[in-house]
Design goal:
Layout (H helix, E strand, L loop, with lengths): L1 E7 L3 H14 L4 E8 L5 H8 L4 E5 L4 H11 L5 E5 L3 E2 L5 H8 L4 E10 L6 E3 L29 E3 L6 E5 H7 L11 H11 L3 E12 L10 H18 L2 H26 L2 H16 L8
Parallel strand pairs: 1-2, 1-4, 2-3, 6-10
Antiparallel strand pairs: 4-9, 5-10, 6-7, 6-9, 8-10
Helix pairs in contact: 1-2, 6-7, 7-8, 7-9, 8-9
Length: 294
């Protein structure tokens, strides 16, 4: 069985759309666990009324992305864990191809093809590669819409996508849960790196396709997003790089990148974003690298 875990934060309508799409298209055995991450309204009750068969787990505080998913895992029964953003919908069955891929014991995690849910439905995820050393820039080639056939072949990759990733239970038991040190952003990179360090492979499975609304919970350009992206970059460098690379990366991120972003937002008059980027970068330097047992 697959345990599908999704975290809800003030987005019960999106969560219900996800559940509705699963019920419409998916026939592989699964359970759905919704973790309500201390929403401001009556989200948990709204979901329960519409879907009384769904396991809704409530947290009395916002645990962040990793914390919410980890709470869902504690309530899951399946041998396969699919972590889905609540702003995902499906238009065809997705579980069996990913489960079949994970039946190879050498493969520890898999992500499906992810398309944006609005025209022109470009592919958002087609298998990420590791970030470049020091600068932590994405090394994944840009999407080429003129040649969509390039993205229809499954292959080994280096990073899962946090919006949709399936991991076997035995892998989690060996590698550990997602780190709750981040709160938002970079958790899937951190987790993917740890999975690879434990000698498991990560796979891209285009036979499974999901559609992503993206940014429904916190928006695309907000102080909250700017703060946690800036914080997460620096924290990721501190947790995953070593020696001189760690020093160079933290210096680059907190001087070059931070100043670039600050100047850019200053020109736009976005003082709220300027403050968020500065605060996030500084906090990333001094935040605890470990939280709970990770």
């Amino acid at each position: 069985m697959v345990s599908i875990i999704t975290v809800n934060y003030n987005g019960w309508k999106d969560t219900c759309e996800l559940i509705a799409s699963l019920k419409k298209y998916e026939r592989y055995p699964y359970e759905v666990i919704v973790v309500d991450n201390a929403s401001a309204g009556d989200d948990a009750q709204e979901i329960r009324v519409r879907y009384p068969d769904i396991n809704v787990v409530c947290s009395d505080k916002n645990l962040g992305f990793a914390g919410g998913n980890n709470l869902g895992y504690q309530n899951a029964k399946g041998d396969y864990l699919l972590f889905l953003n609540n702003d995902i919908i499906i238009k065809s069955a997705i579980l069996e191809p990913m489960v079949r891929r994970l039946q190879d014991p050498a493969i520890g995690g898999v992500s499906p093809m992810i398309r944006f849910s609005y025209p022109p439905y470009d592919v958002q995820y087609y298998g990420h590669q590791k970030m470049t050393p020091i600068t932590l820039k994405h090394s994944t080639p840009a999407y080429d819409g003129a040649h969509p056939e390039k993205y229809l072949k499954d292959r080994e990759v280096e990073v899962m996508h946090g919006a949709a990733m399936m991991v076997r239970r035995d892998v989690i038991e060996k590698v550990g849960l997602m780190s709750e040190a981040y709160f938002l952003f970079y958790e899937e990179f951190d987790w993917s790196y740890r999975i690879l360090k434990n000698q498991f492979k990560i796979w891209y499975e285009p036979a499974s396709l999901v559609f992503h609304k993206e940014g429904q919970s916190i928006g695309k350009i907000t102080p909250m997003r700017g703060y946690y992206l800036s914080r997460g970059r620096v924290l990721f460098a501190r947790r995953n790089l070593g020696g001189i690379n760690k020093l160079l990366s933290c210096t680059y991120l907190t001087i070059v990148v931070m100043l670039r972003d600050i100047l850019d937002y200053a020109r736009q008059g976005r003082w709220d974003m300027l403050k968020a980027v500065f605060s996030g970068s500084v906090n990333g330097l001094f935040a605890r690298k470990e939280k709970n047992n990770h």
